Amino acid sequence: MGRAYLTIDDGPTEITDKILDYLLDIGITPVLFFVGTQVELNYSQAINAVRRGAFIGNHSYSHADFNKLTESECIIEIEKQEMILEKLYHDAGYERKYKLFRFPYGHRGGENEVRLQEFLYYKKFNRIDDRKISYKWYIDGGYNRAMDVYWTFDFQEYRLNTEKEFTLDTIKDSIHVSTDVATSGLLLPNSYDIVLMHDSVKTNEVLPDYYKILIEYTRNRGVTYMNPCFLTRNNVPLNCYFYS
User: Fold this and answer.
1) More confidently predicted of 135 and 36
2) Taken in order 154, 210, 9, 99, is the CA torsion positive or negative?
3) Beta-bridge partners for 197
4) Residue 146 pLDDT exceeds 70
5) How far is CA 237 from its chain centroid?
6) Between the CA of residue 99 and those of 82, 85, 125, 147, what are the distances in Å?
7) Which SS3 state, helix, strand or coil, does residue 20 take?
8) Is 79 helix (H, G, I), strand (E, B) or coil?
9) What DSSP element (H or E) covers 81?
């Protein structure tokens, strides 16, 4: 079937270590998009994630809705988290080789979107290597040219916390969707995807080990999770030893 990068938003939390234990044990290196306030609350877990080889991205300082912020407020959210991540890597004793950013909720700044993309370019953020993602909606939406890291499939497992009609079976059904018109399933032949999962204690209370269940379900149906590969702002490949 297809190949995918695994990205995980909203950490670190109390279960980040357990998520990494599982993923690294089966050979999956994730990209973790950390929120600044969460790093401050769970600094030891953040340090551990860096030292264990996960790639840490910027998911803003407070997980604000960028569509509701001014341009300057958006930049403050990004730069404040950049300072935290620089300190995190310094304290962990590791070089920070890649700078990645994901907008909270996927909201890319509304009327400020173009200027924020220019800001990320100017600040030399890296792109994830999405050159083999071929979904029409992804290309038409310009995601293959943007400086932020979007996704092609969202498990949406966070909805288990609040929506009674949203179940594990709902997620499994979404994995089997076979269309490239909207957010696709993961089982299209020869597909390339950026998968979104969330680091959530509440989800783990509702469905214990949800991350294991979802990853094993997709792997058992032919999804191969790739080692992360990145591009410079000028699309020069970096770290692309597994991308073929």
Assistant:
1) 36
2) negative
3) 8
4) yes
5) 19
6) 9, 10, 5, 10
7) helix
8) helix
9) helix 71-92
Q: Which amino acid is at 146?
A: A
The answer for residues whose C-beta is within 8 angstroms of residue 197's C-beta and 6 or more apart is: 6, 7, 8, 9, 155, 157, 211, 214
With a cut of 70, say whether residue 188 has pLDDT above it. yes
- DSSP labels, 184-240: --S-STT-EEEEEEE--HHHHHHSTTHHHHHHHHHHTTT-EEPPP-EE-TT--EES-
pLDDT for 80 beyond 70: yes
* Cα 92 to the center of its chain, rounded Å: 21
- Helix (H, G, I), strand (E, B), or coil: what is residue 85? helix
Q: CA angle at residue 10 from 30 to 197, to 5 degrees?
A: 50
DSSP-derived pairing of the beta strands 31-34 and 55-58:
parallel
In our burial notation (b when 16+ CB lie closer than 10 A, e otherwise), range 38-48 reads bbeebeebbbb
The secondary element (H helix, E strand) that includes residue 56 is strand 55-58
Phi and psi angles of residue 3, each rounded to the nearest 5 degrees, phi first: -120, 155
Residue 153 structure tokens: 């499939």
